[in-house]
Amino acid sequence: MLKKLNKFVWFFTLFGGDRWRYIKYCSISPVCDKQKALYYKIIIETHSLEKGLSVAHTRPGFGKSKINYLIDALSKYDVAFGAFPVEKTLGTLQAYYDFHTQINFEDKILDKVSQTLKKHEKKVSLNGGLREFEAPLKLGSQKVGSDLLKSRFSSRVYSEEKLTEQEVENLVRIAQQAPSQCNRQATKAYFFNDINKIRELLSLQAGAGGFNQDVSNLFLITSELSAWGGAQQRNQPYVDGALFSMALLYSCHANDIVSCPLNLAITHKTSDQIKKVANVNKDEVLIMMIAVGKPPKDILTLKVAKSARRPVSEILVFNGAKNE
What we know:
The chain is α+β, with helices and mostly antiparallel strands and 324 residues long. It contains eleven helices and four strands. It has a four-stranded antiparallel beta sheet, with helices on both faces.
């Protein structure tokens, strides 16, 4: 009885620690480093513009509020903290300006974009916007080893073709090679090709508004809580589920299926709604959705956000040495 009581207390202690740590160090905390929070905020808002440029039907003049925010954020950001957000923003603003110039779209926001680009001209390199592919474009099945891994990208442009049951089973079978703690394999993959159900699920996900009408195939990844026990394993369903999801993304890429992971940063209420629509059991936690599909028949219409990666020097730490 004492042993069970001790385990019960651990739930309050460890989950309480999680809550306090997040409240203390997340970006909206008053004690969070302002430049560090701004570093990530600029990246996040810039990527929203990249996504808008990478959908099949880019809406002229989109994202004005985000552009105004980014221009103001750049004036407050100290580039000495890291040039990457500035490079990404300026590259994306250049792509935004070029797109609207090509379609002869006029708006005051473009004047602000042009002025910002001129202000920062030659200060940093451009590293955002859309990815450039070498012609002829080679998809994953034509690549091996590290070239396969480095060439994966997220696509928001698909053909209307639905994947066959055999194709879906093959993708999941390959993804099952993902590691799983103690080989639990508690991850589940729900697949949908019913257009009405996909629209309903994506409306609850709420992050695919610019291209949800183009999605004809959708995965919902979950993890069963019954595979885990004790407060110490509270995060493992998400770790296992994320490993499986990444393996599924590479499985798609290796089989010339384009894909886009969709986060589920949602409330409990929305999670319950998704479970109801998808017929997911209550003892499962939601990991993510993944939009998948065949690439467009005219491969030249494929548009992909550049999604530039941070310098390795910013994320690699040798022997626990603190970055200066």
